[in-house]
Amino acid sequence: MTRSVFIGATAAAAMLAGAGYAAEGDTLADVTGRDQLICGVNAGLVGFASPDANGNWTGFDIAVCKAIAAAVLSDPAKVKYVPTTGQTRFTALASGEVDVLARNSTWTFSRDTDLTLDFAGINYYDGQGFMVPRSLGVSSAKELDGATICVQTGTTTELNLADYFNANNMSYQPVNIDSNAEGEQQYMAGACDAYTTDASGLAATRAAFASPSDHIILPEIISKEPLGPVVRHGDNNWGDIVRWTLYALIAAEEYGVTSANIEELASNSENPEVQRLLGTTGDLGAMIGLDAEWAKRAIKAGGNYGEIFAKTIGEETPIGLARGLNAQWTQGGLMYAMPFR
Amino acid sequence: MTDRAPAGPASPPFRPSMLIYDRRYRSMTFQVIVFIIVMSLVWWLIGNTITNLENLGKDIDFRFLFSRAGYDIPQQLIPYDNDDSHLRAAVIGLLNTLFVSFLGCIAATFLGVAVGVLRLSNNWLFARLMTIYVEIFRNIPLLLWILIIFAIFTEISPAPRAYRGEDAQNLFLGLIAPTNRYTSIPGIVAEHSPGVLQIGRIAIPWLAILFLGLLALAVVLRRWINARAQRVQNRTGRRPTTWWINLALFVVPPVAIWLIFGLRLTVPELTGFNFSGGINVDNSLVALWLALTLYTGAFIAEIVRAGILAVSKGQSEASFALGLRPNRTMNLVILPQALRVIVPPLISQYLNLTKNSSLAIAVGYMDLRGTLGGTTVNQTGRELEGILLMMLVYLAVSLMISGVMNIYNSRVKLKER
Q1: Positions of chain A with pLDDT under 50
Q2: CATH top-level class for A127-224?
Q3: Which run of H or E residues covers position A194?
């Protein structure tokens, strides 16, 4: 008697449980539903993502978040920034805690496939380098045999570091740190001889020092680090929105659309590519579930790719990064937006 | 129903309403209902996890443990390099966890017992000082202590290169070099080394085995000598002098090894960026160990104090009346009785210390949480498997500690007949 009751209840519970499973996410609907984009960002890397004195997030990666929010929600301010560490970022994305991860993350095979993430594009072509105090008297990474090196755990840099020292038959002592801020502190205290991370990150870290000229970034770049925004695998429409928002920023620079002249060009541009990009003709927005002016808003949010670069990490800023690989393809760089057609 | 109703014609036939209104069945009914609810919840949780993992395109797969780890670990108790598997990296992490927990438990016990006894001392200054220590350490989160102690080490001590050049820093006593990365202490090498015992890739020096063997032998012999002295005392009323034999047992073998094999100290030397030749004890290990010791020691002190207070005052008064000095009263009368009260909560403190050691990542000490639960999980994307495995390992370690401590507890507890 009790047994049959038990079996029946269990079966009923099982059916209920089956109905209760979380459905496959539709991120666009989630974002518009809550009227807010949740963006996973670096916990603090000057130039890329850091809160300013008033608590407003600014930076190169932040600009991507703002552009997406502007495209989807018509307001670049409707973003909630979730700081993530090297260890928590992919879990935060996979678990749905954030909608998109714009946190200088390297596009690698295993992350794209095994971690079931999708890289929506590349907003910065980077490579791993080393920073040492000038007083150490080291001018090449090849002279670092036996050195103590600070490295963030859970990053590709940790693996590249091991590979580089293996390949050059050198030894080193790792100091594992959890965040860039901790790395900075350890490096400044002299707990490690060298600090290794992406060259852009080194430049940004150095810019925050009291006397940046006392530290040099060694010439060796030991890896390729293509950094870009990441979304969950499986929600292709959301991936498209993030990808093409990024392309819109890059294409805008290519076609000379800036935050200053965008209104003017939207009304009188002769270039059909610009007209399609800004939604004057055609209906590209509808194909990704947005309205016609999505790209226009994204570009207006912080300017085109070149403007964002110049404002946050360019040569005029304390970080002082040259465009290098990140120049437009027409200028000998790798930035190449797919056609808006 | 399996329950047999009382025999006799008066017993009414079973009706469903009796499941609620009849006291004979009611408790059974509610137990079954609660059981069903709990099992449904568990079923739903497991099913939900599996389905969500499927939706993400993930499966549960432990094969990642056998692929190449690719990252380096600063402190290794057994050999490891980045070509080894994630499994070996996890074992390295586990050994680091056990190492710091073991050192922490021992130090915290000594500290806790000393402080707990001193807190009850009649000396006003000592008693107050110990109260301050206990209240400060047990009322501030452990993580802060770990970070503070680590920061003190890295900020105060000099970088290794401060020991070089014109106005170079001198080695402490000419032997020890504290730096902001590690403390370099002298190592020991033998002129005539008998070699090492090779087990797989683990090399154990024969001298260490010999030393530990002699030490164990000394402990056994000491027990035998003391037992014999006790027998002689019981028979004749005079206790033979044994202290010089006991002392010799522990002093002669090390000295003999030292002379026969020509042991000498190797002074750490600054070569390139870092010290070599000695043993470099990482600051992260020392900071973590100190913080765990001081923090848990404060709790143990309170347990010890409570245990001592639990022994009735008459015991110490009787002991004093017999003419025993205060320190013998404590060692022979109070503590043996207090242990009955102290040991069970002490087990919890050991477990806490072991689990708290997982805060190691804050100072970059690569314990199990740092290797398996940190880098491995991150590089392979196997969060669920990694965390499940880590939970299992911590559970197993904790159960083992409490198993061993329970055996000890059953030996010291009051024998009731």
Answers
A1: 1-23
A2: alpha beta
A3: strand A194-198
